[in-house]
Structure formats: structure tokens, C-alpha cells
């Protein structure tokens, strides 16, 4: 059975149970009918036998007090023979010899009387020859036994025909139900074949395949289908997330290698030129090497910070007001570009307001420094910059807005990615390594906040940092 398909096993089990049920039902029905027919035969046999005893004991007119000798049984058979039945009656003496017998209904084989004894109830006895059986009742008399027997041929024929009809009908019914059951089981197991096909498709690489929901919510197939689809959805999401993570890691390694190779190449080049004495006049090799080393150090520190942020950087949280950072940011704008107009306002305009937060001040200063440096570096000289601070909607808000060229939708979507720069030429004059805004977003999210960007081409850009307001 273990090597057979589920469809074949289900069909075989169903046919086996059906066969057992039909056989048991037919046996019970035929047995009940046979008992009823034999019961009627026994009733007739008992009535006939008792009537024969009474006739046999009729007094002899010539010898008062003695029964009519040798004629009683014959009289019984003539008067009480069953219509259409094969009957037999006999009288056995005390020595077991037959003293008289009578048969009706033709000349069938006689019942076997060897060793006959008195019986209280009718019993089955075989014929002297042939397969025919008899129902026999032996009643004691004054000088022996009175035997009365009725052939079971009609009962046995009726039961035999009924068994044949039941067997033929059952076989035909089983054949028809087997054919119908084959198609029914096949249709019932069709959802399992769909699950098998879906599994094969997924194994072949089609992670978007799903099992059709072909069952109701309370059926086993329906529950299995929904559970499998939920599992497949999670697996697909996990696989896509893994693939995306691997792709980001490859990009990160490639960009990091590129960014690290540039200052290293500068350091190596100026070192060789200095050793060979081939530097142009007026070029300070040590100064250039120091600049490239500083640049390399900042890049490595940024990479280490991002790695620590990925591993949940521990922050030194303390109550503070973002107005302090906003005021220092205003001074930073003036220090970076004294000719650039800058103002301190509230969020979206108006006077600045209190912005209490529970934060790591050193890390937030790094956030503000990166945002201010980004606004000064990526806008033309003289472009106004606005620093906004205050509270809104249960958040402490700090804004850095400029009126520069702005970004389009595609650039705004990728601006917080690591090593991304809006300048496709990757020129260092247009910005740094492309890690500043990635660090800003990671630090803000580490505080449980979020950063928003509102920009469009020709309308400038506004970076908005929102931190949860501290509990009372």
C-alpha cells in the first residue's frame, strides 16, 4: 500500500469498505429470510407430526385399548401432506427398524434415519444420497419413534437464488461504484495535484507561484492552501530581501573600495614623487599626503559609524532642546559661507519655538553638521538657507532648507542611499563620499525618529528631522 498513489489507496480502501458492507448486509438479509422460511417449515412440520401422532394412537375397534396398528402414519400422510412439498413419514420400532413409511411429492431421496433418536425440535439431516437436506422431527410413541420430515429443497433453492442475485447485483454495483469513485477521487484530489505543480514551479525558480484557493475556509484543502500561500509569501519576501541585501552589500563593497582607493592612490603617488624627487616646484608633498590621509580617515570613520549603526549603536540619551543645535547650525552656515543669507525660524516659518527631545547631543550635532554642509556644498554661493526649529504633532522638529536647484523624484528617492551622489560624474567637487545623508538617516532612526525630504527641481530642498517628544 505504501508504494501506491494516494488516489489508488483511497479508492481501494473505499471499495474494501463498500464490499464489506454489502457482504455483511446481504448475509444478514439472506440469513433473516432463511430463518423465516425454515421457521415456517418447522411450524408445518410440528403441526403435521403432532396430527400424525394423534391419528396413530386412534383405538382399534376390534381390540379396545390398543391403537390402530400400521395405519396411523399412512393416514397422516394422506390427510396432512403439504401442498407442493416433498414430505416423508415413517415409524421406527424399538429396534430401529422401519415398520411403515410414506412419501409424497415424487420420489426424492429419503432422509438418513440411521441412529435416529427422539428430538424436541426439528433438525437438519442429509439425504441417503445426493445433496438434498431435510427438516426432521422424531417424536416418541408407545412402540418406537414417529418420524416426520419435509424436504428443504425449495428453501435452499430460494436462498441459493437470492445469494446469486445478491452476488451479481453486488458485483455490478461495485464495478459501477469503482468507476464512479475513480473519477470522484481524482476530482477530489485535484487540489493536491495543483499543490504539487505549484511546488514544482517554485523549485524550478518561479517564486511568485501560488496555490489556487480551491476549497472553502473550513475545508482541509482550503486551510492547507492558505497556509502554503502564506508560507510561500514569506519565503518569497525573505528571498527577495536576501537578494536585495546581497546586492546592496556588493554595491557597498564596490563603492567603499572605490572611495578608499582614491585617497590611497593620492598618498601613494605623492610619496613616490617625493622619493624620486620629481615633484613640480611649489608642490608640498607632505601637505597633499596629509590632506589625503585626513580624507581617508574621515571616510573610514564614516564607514565604521555606519557599521555600528547597523549593529544598533549605543546612544547616550539625555534631555535637550533642539534650539541649541539650531543656533549652532546658523553659526556654521555663516562660518562656511559668510556671504550666504541664513535665518532661524520655526518649522515652516514664524518664530523659533522650544523643541524638547531625549537624544544623544553629539550624534545629533553630526546630523545637523551633515545637513548644513550638504546645503552649502550643493547650492550656488549666495543661496539663502533657513534653519527651522520647534514642535509639531508630538515631535521635536529641526529643519534645514535651501533655495537651491532641488532634486527630481528619482534623485530624491535615492538620496539617502550609501555612496549615492546626484552628480553622475562622481566628481569630488560636487560633494564628498556620498555617506553623509545615509549617516543622517541612520542616526535619526537610531533615535526612534525619521527624516523627511521635500524637494522638486528649481524649488530647493527641505530636510526635516522629527524626533519623538519625551514623556513628562
Question: Main traits of this protein?
Answer:
Helix Hairpins; Heat Shock Protein 90; 51% helix; 5-stranded mixed β-sheet; alpha+beta; 5-stranded antiparallel β-sheet; Beta-Lactamase; 12 strands; single chain; rod-shaped; 472 residues
Chain-wise SSE layout:
Layout lengths: L5 H51 L15 H9 L6 E7 L4 E7 L18 E4 L6 E9 L2 E8 L1 H36 L1 H14 L16 H57 L8 H26 L7 E4 H15 L5 E4 L10 E4 L1 H17 L7 E8 L2 E8 L6 H6 L21 H11 L3 E6 L5 E8 L4
Parallel strand pairs: 7-9
Antiparallel strand pairs: 1-2, 1-5, 3-4, 4-5, 6-8, 9-10, 10-12, 11-12
Helical residues, percent: 40-55%
Major beta-sheet overview? 5 strands, antiparallel
Distance between the termini: 72 Å
Work out the strand percent. Answer: 15-25%
Compute the number of structural domains. Answer: 3
What's the CATH C level of the largest domain? Alpha Beta
| Gyration radius over CA | 55 Å
Strand order of the largest sheet: 2-1-5-4-3
Strand runs, count: 12
SSE pattern, N- to C-terminal: HHEEEEEHHHHEHEEHEEHHEE
Mean pLDDT: 79
Assign the CATH architecture of the largest domain. Answer: 2-Layer Sandwich
Regions with little confidence, pLDDT below 50 for 5+ residues:
55-61, 65-84, 425-431
Judged by helices, strands and strand pairing, the structural class is alpha+beta
CATH topology of the largest domain: Beta-Lactamase
Shape: rod-shaped
Please work out how many helical segments DSSP would assign: 10
